[in-house]
């Protein structure tokens, strides 16, 4: 009797715990109906120098101590425009924001990077949706492949890869235009429940212009 009661309590608590914080659900119960593969092509404009630079070298602890132009440990932050065609004044379709780090200790012009960035679409059917990219980018490979590790909005549950290929490069300044071909799986037909998750209102930030303007923050 005691044993079975103990067993029952142990068993019941396992069941309760399972229900309390996780449950298996089907994709369709959240409105995710049909998975689809899409190819997206755009051009990435990386401006290294001048008044309209799109990057900053945020950290470079070995700069000057190493023979490499961008030494091991350097961290570059970027915010690059993405356009439909290769010309800088071609139609803007989004932006890439993130970083790349130098990940090799070899002291030559051997740009081996790890890159992490979000791609935010600002026009067309993907407007407001994002893709997250994270991977190795060995600049001297003619085509660099990096994984798409997720997404938001239309691209919830996204997975895929990009193939990045230099279109033009100014070897002196480092400015580059790179063609990105993205191959991504995601749910093309998100039902009303999935789309309602997209449109919920964020009440908390109605005082947006005062948010984080306390001078204390500047003293940290
Ligand atoms: C920088 O951007 C401004 C505004 O788009 C443009 O007028 C100017 O020509 C650009 N400067 C350079 C050096 O590209
Ligand atoms: C993209 O979406 C934003 C926010 O909903 C909207 O303000 C903007 O006009 C849209 N842009 C285009 C080109 O559709």
Automatic annotation (TrEMBL):
Pfam families: Dirigent
Principal location class: secreted
Signal sequence interval, chain numbering: 1-17
InterPro entries: Allene_oxi_cyc_Dirigent, Dirigent
Location relative to the cell: Secreted, Extracellular space, Apoplast
Signal listed as a keyword: yes
Keyword DNA-binding recorded: no
Keywords: Apoplast, Secreted, Signal
Domain of life according to the entry: Eukaryota
The protein's role, per its UniProt record: Dirigent proteins impart stereoselectivity on the phenoxy radical-coupling reaction, yielding optically active lignans from two molecules of coniferyl alcohol in the biosynthesis of lignans, flavonolignans, and alkaloids and thus plays a central role in plant secondary metabolism.
Entry's family note: Belongs to the plant dirigent protein family.
Quaternary assembly: Homodimer.
Protein known as: Dirigent protein
Organism lineage: Eukaryota, Viridiplantae, Streptophyta, Embryophyta, Tracheophyta
């Amino acid at each position: 009797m005691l044993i079975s009661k103990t067993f029952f309590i142990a068993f019941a608590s396992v069941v309760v715990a399972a229900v309390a914080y996780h449950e298996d659900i089907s994709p369709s119960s959240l409105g995710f109906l049909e998975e689809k593969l899409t190819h997206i092509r755009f051009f990435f404009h990386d401006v290294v120098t001048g008044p309209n630079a799109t990057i900053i070298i945020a950290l470079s602890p070995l700069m000057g101590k190493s023979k490499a132009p961008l030494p091991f440990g350097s961290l570059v932050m970027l915010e690059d425009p993405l356009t439909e065609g290769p010309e800088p004044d071609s139609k803007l379709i989004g932006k890439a924001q993130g970083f790349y780090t130098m990940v090799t200790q070899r002291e030559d012009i051997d740009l081996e990077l790890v890159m992490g960035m979000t791609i935010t679409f600002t026009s067309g059917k993907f407007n407001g949706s994002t893709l997250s990219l994270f991977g190795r980018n060995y600049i001297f490979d003619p085509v660099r492949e990096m994984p798409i590790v997720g997404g938001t909005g239309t691209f919830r549950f996204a997975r895929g890869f990009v193939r990045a290929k230099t279109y033009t490069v100014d070897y002196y300044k480092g400015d580059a235009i790179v063609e990105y071909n993205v191959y991504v799986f995601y749910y093309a037909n998100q039902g009303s429940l999935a789309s309602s998750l997209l449109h919920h209102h964020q009440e908390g930030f109605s005082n947006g212009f005062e948010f984080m303007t306390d001078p204390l923050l500047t003293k940290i």
